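Folding Query — how this chain folds
Tokens — whole-number codes for backbone shape
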Amino acid sequence: MNNPKLNVQFEFTQDGYLEAIHLIAGNDKEQQTLEVCLDKLFKPCHANWLRRLFKRNS
């Protein structure tokens, strides 16, 4: 069975600003899945969760 890995890569500038978001998927359906998931993550109710996630890793 094919077990694809879906990845999202965030690219930042030297100043720490988000420059690009790269979606790594095997086909269009997988890319659409990633887009839906990112849309859900970046909704205002999840913004604080994302800030804490990136703050912890920096």
